[in-house]
User: Fold this.
Amino acid sequence: MTDEPKLKSHGRLTIQANAVPRDLMEPRHVKGAWVARVITLFPEAFPGVLGLSLTGRALDQGLWRLETLDLRTFGEGKHRNVDDSPAGGGAGMVLRADVLDRALVKAAEAADWPVVYLSPRGRRFDQAMARQWSQGPGVTLLCGRFEGVDQRVLDHHRIEEVSLGDFVLTGGEIAAQAMLDATVRLLPEVLGNQASTEEESFSDGLLEFPQFTRPVVWEGREIPAVLQSGHHGEIAKWRRAQAEEITKEQRPDLWQAYLDKRGQAKKR
Assistant:
């Protein structure tokens, strides 16, 4: 290989007077910013929706940093091959262990945080995992393609497998953006109002209560009177009851986990 692969970074830019010319698109890293490092065959897919709205603003402000590593640059031979047919036969192609190893070693430079392979057979991603990731320095996400990756590289690097849900995508890029969106919004100062993350779905094991806004009456439907009462204690009780009822009806699995957790807390 003649070209040294480089991480493509998306984040805050600064321009300073300097006697030495430099590329004005070169990112200026903000010290202490949370970092997402993504290994992918399609780096052009990023930042995608992560560059919009709150996550995009936070990216521009340097509250977090996104780095993409093009897996193709680590490929074999003239055509930068990254995959081969599965051992034992079968349809599709499998990402090679040696190619992935080179990318993972590069991605691990100066990084001490979770390395995750986005896989439908992995542990299901949830709010608790997003919060855990947000409380660390960053995360590396490996986006698979084709029939998956050589198992040996997963075992060698002790990579954790995480799933977005019980379905199969053509690749890990969409899952990576969804997981990063869920994580980045939990970083300090990204939402601006920390109470927003404390009241939303899954924050305490329950789905979120119904929300309303103006007009007070719409199509003959009125905002519940308790929400117009100004009595904060009664509003809190109503919202809690609604959250419990919705969770019980729509997500029995979450409701049972919530009851189990409450039972354990009472025993302490």
